[in-house]
């Protein structure tokens, strides 16, 4: 004799279920699923934390419906659900998990109603139920038709994919190191001076020009200046001037009218109009063409712009902050950047120091970046939180970081990704560094007839500079420094050091 299969329906008690019962004993989701299911339910479990006075009446209503059509009707009951509120995920999770685990053990087939209850109840029913092989999902249409719900998603796999994607996106985005640029965390004298100057510029209305190498945080400084200004509650708009084609820069900055060019299907306000009353940050301003420079100068001088396809001028009130890693004064000399525009922008000048020039700040910045990496990684089920060893921190402090914070950020992400250890060592960091091809171009040397130089002294000067740089980068490990300088062995390096009067620090 074959074993009888047990089919169970689990549902939350919905407000509509009660209302329809009271309104002439009409069907709603629970009674619809119970009566229309192809396979009768041997047991119906209903969870609720409200309208207690109607529970017994609702039980009898469903039992009557089942008895009328000859279906099992003895085991139909509303159970009290101890939840904090209908939208409290934690308590709903506890109740839902308890009942799904219990009933899936009892049943050959457990059906879960997704129509009744709050979105929180439905969401947790799906997440927990998907982990059971004998669970199926049902819902009722507005016309009281039974619908089978297919959810072909592996939530565990999707969670891992989402967490992995988040780690990847964070690693390739800009690091969030706002605190490293504030007065509270700028330990170095260089950064304290920069921040103090930035505060004075922020309080004024003058245009600002932020200079510095790639990755020094020029956009971050522009944002801080905007937030510290009287325009803080107005828009801050940002554009990388080197990221757009010439024709798009004009439209992006100054806007265009419908029909101004092929594809201009409607009027488009440019960033100057969008930033009216606020601030416009022009990153890599040195990339602007002479034509755009003329229009930018007019916007700065007269507060007027012309959008493409329009003969009328528009008045705007915008503070401009520009930034570049290029030498603008040199571009002016070469005729590539307008001198009058340069002096219009270069009122509040800020020179962002390179990371290697602010050693006192590096440890603070590293700790912030490590915290970010661990916070993002913690969302991944296989991630282990990591820290950096003392020697690893010394290695970081010894590097030149030509890409500045951006290079440091990328290096830390690679080291944390590749290492299986909880402690990131100097070896891990060294392996995560990207070897840069050195520029070995040599400027032609010209000498006049009576010129005299000490060639030996000149050569020794360069040798000493490179030996010291190699020792610093290698953490004073002579064998590695010798490899960096392409010397035969560490003894050869020692001989050089002796002749160049370089003392070896252990």
From TrEMBL:
Residues 184-417 form the Sigma-54 factor interaction domain. Keywords: ATP-binding, Nucleotide-binding. PROSITE patterns: SIGMA54_INTERACT_2 (PS00676), SIGMA54_INTERACT_4 (PS50045). Gene3D superfamilies: 1.10.8.60, Homeodomain-like, Hypothetical protein VC1899 like domain (Restriction endonuclease-like), P-loop containing nucleotide triphosphate hydrolases. Pfam families: AAA_lid_14 (PF25601), Sigma54_activat (PF00158). It comes from the Bacteria. SUPFAM superfamilies: P-loop containing nucleoside triphosphate hydrolases. InterPro entries: AAA+_ATPase, AAA_lid_NorR, P-loop_NTPase, Sigma_54_int, Sigma_54_int_dom_ATP-bd_2. This is Sigma-54 dependent transcriptional regulator. It comes from Pseudoalteromonas arctica.
């Amino acid at each position: 004799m074959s074993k009888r299969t047990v089919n169970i329906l689990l549902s939350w008690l919905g407000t509509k279920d009660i209302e329809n019962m009271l309104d002439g004993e009409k069907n709603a989701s629970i009674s619809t699923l119970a009566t229309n299911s192809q396979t009768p339910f041997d047991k119906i479990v209903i969870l609720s934390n409200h309208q207690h006075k109607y529970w017994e009446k609702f039980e009898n209503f469903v039992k009557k419906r089942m008895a009328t059509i000859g279906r099992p009707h003895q085991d139909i009951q509303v159970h009290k659900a101890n939840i904090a509120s209908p939208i409290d995920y934690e308590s709903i999770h506890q109740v839902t998990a308890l009942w799904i685990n219990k009933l899936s053990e009892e049943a050959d087939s457990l059906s879960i109603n997704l129509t009744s209850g709050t979105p929180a109840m439905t969401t947790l029913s799906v997440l927990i139920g998907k982990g059971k092989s004998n669970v199926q999902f049902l819902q009722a249409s507005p016309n009281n038709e039974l619908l089978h719900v297919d959810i072909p998603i592996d939530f565990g796999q999707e969670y891992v994919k989402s967490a992995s994607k988040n780690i990847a996106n964070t690693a390739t985005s800009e690091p969030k190191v706002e605190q490293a640029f504030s007065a509270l965390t700028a330990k170095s004298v260089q950064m304290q001076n920069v921040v103090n100057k930035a505060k004075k510029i922020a309080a004024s209305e003058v245009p600002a020009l932020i200079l510095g190498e790639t990755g020094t945080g020029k956009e971050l400084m522009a944002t801080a200046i905007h937030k510290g200004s009287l325009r803080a509650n107005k828009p801050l708009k940002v554009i990388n001037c080197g990221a757009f084609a010439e024709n798009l820069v004009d439209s992006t900055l100054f806007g265009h009218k419908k029909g101004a060019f092929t594809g201009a299907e409607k009027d488009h306000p440019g960033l100057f109009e969008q930033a009216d009353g606020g601030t416009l940050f022009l990153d890599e301003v040195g990339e602007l063409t002479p034509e755009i420079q003329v229009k930018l100068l007019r916007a700065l001088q007269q507060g007027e712009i012309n959008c493409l396809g329009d003969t009328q001028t528009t008045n705007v009130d915008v503070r401009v902050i520009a930034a570049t890693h290029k030498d603008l004064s040199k571009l002016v000399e070469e005729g590539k950047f307008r001198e009058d525009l340069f002096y219009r922008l270069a009122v509040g000048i800020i020179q962002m120091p390179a990371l290697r020039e602010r050693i006192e700040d590096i440890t603070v910045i590293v700790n912030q970046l490590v915290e970010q990496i661990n916070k993002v990684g913690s969302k991944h089920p296989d991630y282990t939180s990591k820290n950096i060893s003392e020697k690893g921190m010394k290695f970081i402090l010894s590097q030149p970081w030509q890409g500045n914070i951006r290079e440091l950020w990328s290096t830390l992400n690679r080291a944390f990704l590749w290492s299986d250890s909880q402690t990131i060592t100097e070896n891990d960091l060294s392996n995560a560094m990207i070897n840069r091809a050195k520029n070995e171009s040599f400027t032609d040397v010209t000498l006049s007839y009576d010129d005299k130089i000490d060639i030996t002294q000149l050569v020794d000067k360069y040798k000493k500079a490179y030996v010291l740089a190699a020792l610093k980068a290698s953490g004073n490990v002579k064998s590695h420094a010798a490899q960096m300088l392409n010397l035969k062995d560490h003894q050869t390096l020692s001989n050089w050091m002796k002749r160049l009067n370089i003392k070896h620090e252990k």
